[in-house]
UniProtKB/TrEMBL annotation:
Organism: Neovison vison (American mink)
Family stated for the protein in its record: Belongs to the NOP5/NOP56 family.
Protein name: Nucleolar protein 56
Ranges of Low complexity composition bias in the record: 455-469, 488-504
Keywords: Nucleus, Ribosome biogenesis
Transmembrane segments: none
Feature: compositional bias, Basic residues: 444-454, 583-597
């Protein structure tokens, strides 16, 4: 008896289902086909053994990528090892994808089967899955499938191997379309402006130059010798500029109104801007081709190589094509028409636009196109599968085509392909080493810049951190300095003070009240020198006691401040007489102030 298990992958998790034991699995097919649409009958055949839900959408995306690549994820491995029987020979596991089945059989040792009855069972499980798993509704299952589908598609687009080919395909398609549009618009400008100046068409052949001249000349009657220098700049030829000036004087064109000229000039400016954009787009295409397919672009040119890639769909598809397909790529209509009418098949397709076929003789065009297609196939494979893109192989292949052309013309025997490829391998290794050195230098420069930036940031942060405590210390020190300076200051006493004595602040006198002046006078008569600090809210009844207390506080500080050269102010008869006269003057002033009050 064989026990059949079926693995079902869903957006919400893995489900392992078991079927009833039968001698042969093929006998289940008619029963399963009958009961797929009926849930009750389907439950009699299939039962849910285990369900492993995904923890998050990121885990679901990882498992979906692993299943699509044929890799056994750890979640799937844990589920199978836990819930499948230990006797692996009696277990048959049904899976929907042969790749994941081969991976499970190789890593875990379980026999896997796909197709037949397994497909029918999976169809029924997909239909009734929300009924088999408890707590899962049809709406939540649909939402999970939609979210996983979006994330899986986004990841595939993001990690597309051929994503750089898309830019080349779009660029060459736009380039071809621009060529058609510029030609059409230029013919319209020629016809429109030709009514006014028909002779200009025969003189100027280039479309962009004609549009620039039509925009510059405007009314031909206003063209004179002063504009000859500008004409030479536009035409890049002095003879053509002179011919345009002469033709404008004897032109057979009709007169044209100002509004018509404005419209012609506006349309000409649009055509000129389109031609300039076409040149910039061609430059962009060349840069992209040198990055994506350097060997192919070195062999047949950027435009022809881009057309081959666009026609094949991607560089990988072009690398898969044989040389015979590359030779007639772009000539499918002629090929099938020849096969239908049993005529001659085409010798070349898009590679006809390369310079080699045009340079070959008529009898050698088929031979050189076959040889060129062979080299294009080799170059596309080198570009597709090489890790380091280099144009060395393309240049060597181009040399081989040149030698083959000369062999057809002169009979000179070309070099063997083996010798040429050996030379190319040596040069490619040197180029790869040179590129590695350049990348290493760039990485070193980047690391140096990063180190300098981090060092500058660290220095700035350290300066900021060190400046903050210094500022705090400065703010703490400032009031202390002010307090020390206050007792050192003494008022000037009408110029009678000794110059060796420290000078007090004169600004403090402005803020003193009448009571403070009275107290200071009383102190000076008592023999004190320093100016006391008084509060404005002090009572008037006790000025003398406060002054004496202040004098007792300040006098010892003043004695400490004296140097060896200085002496107290009370020493000497002259100083005593000066102090008496000043005190008498201040008393008179105080009496006057008291009378006014």
């Amino acid at each position: 008896m064989v026990l059949l298990h079926v693995l079902f992958e869903h957006a919400v998790g893995y489900a392992l289902l078991a079927l009833k034991e039968v001698e042969e699995i093929s006998l289940l097919l008619p029963q399963v086909e009958e009961c797929v649409l009926n849930l009750g009958k389907f439950h009699n055949i299939v039962r849910l053994v285990a369900f492993c839900p995904f923890a998050s959408s990121q885990v679901a995306l990882e498992n979906a990528n692993a299943v699509s690549e044929g890799v056994v994820h750890e979640d799937l491995r844990l589920l199978l090892e836990t819930h499948l029987p230990s006797k692996k020979k009696k277990v048959l596991l049904g899976v929907g994808d042969p790749k994941i089945g081969a991976a499970i059989q190789e890593e875990l040792g379980y026999n896997c089967q796909t197709g037949g009855v397994i497909a029918e069972i999976l169809r029924g499980v997909r239909l009734h899955f929300h009924n088999l798993v408890k707590g899962l509704t049809d709406l939540s299952a649909c939402k999970a499938q939609l979210g996983l589908g979006h994330s899986y598609s986004r990841a595939k687009v993001k990690f597309n191997v051929n994503r750089v080919d898309n830019m080349i395909i779009q660029s060459i398609s736009l380039l071809d379309q621009l060529d058609k549009d510029i030609n059409t618009f230029s013919m319209r400008v020629r016809e429109w402006y030709g009514y006014h100046f028909p002779e200009l068409v025969k003189i100027i052949n280039d479309n962009a130059t004609y549009c620039r001249l039509a925009q510059f000349i405007g009314n031909r009657r206003e063209l004179n010798e002063e504009k000859l220098e500008k004409l030479e700049e536009l035409t890049m030829d002095g003879a053509k500029a002179k011919a345009i000036l002469d033709a404008s004087r004897s032109s057979m064109g009709m007169d044209i109104s100002a509004i018509d000229l404005i419209n012609i000039e506006s349309f000409s400016s649009r055509v000129v801007s389109l031609s300039e954009y076409r040149q910039s787009l061609h430059t962009y295409l060349r840069s992209k081709m040198s990055q994506v397919a350097p060997s192919l672009s070195a062999l047949i040119g950027e435009a022809v190589g881009a057309r081959l890639i666009a026609h094949a769909g991607s560089l990988t598809n072009l690398a898969k094509y044989p040389a015979s397909t590359v030779q007639i790529l772009g000539a499918e209509k002629a090929l099938f028409r020849a096969l239908k009418t049993r005529g001659n098949t085409p010798k070349y397709g898009l590679i006809f636009h390369s310079t080699f076929i045009g340079r070959a003789a008529a009898k050698n065009k088929g031979r050189i196109s076959r040889y060129l297609a062979n080299k294009c196939s080799i170059a596309s494979r080198i570009d597709c599968f090489s890790e380091v893109p280099t144009s060395v192989f393309g240049e060597k292949l181009r040399e081989q085509v040149e030698e083959r052309l000369s062999f057809y013309e002169t009979g000179e025997i070309p070099r063997k392909n083996l010798d040429v490829m050996k030379e190319a391998m040596v040069q490619a290794e040197e180029a790869a080493a040179e590129m590695a050195r350049k990348l290493e230098k760039q990485e070193k420069k980047r690391l140096k810049k990063e180190k300098k930036r981090l060092a500058a940031l660290a220095l700035a942060s350290s300066e900021n951190s060190s400046s903050t405590p210094e500022e705090c210390e400065e703010t703490n020190e400032r009031p202390k300095k002010k307090k020390k300076q206050k007792p050192q200051e003494t008022p000037q006493e009408n110029g009678m003070e000794d110059p060796s004595v420290p000078v007090s602040k004169p600004k403090k006198k402005k803020s003193f009240s009448k009571e403070e002046l009275v107290s200071s006078d009383l102190e000076e008569t008592a023999g004190s020198v320093s100016l006391p600090k008084r509060k404005k809210s002090a009572p008037k009844e006790e000025p003398v006691s406060d002054a004496e207390e202040a004098g007792t506080r300040i006098i010892p500080k003043k004695k400490r401040k004296f140097s060896s050269k200085e002496e107290p102010l009370s020493s000497g008869p002259e100083e005593a007489a000066g102090s008496k006269s000043s005190s008498s003057k201040k008393k008179k002033k105080l009496r006057k102030l008291a009378q006014e009050d």
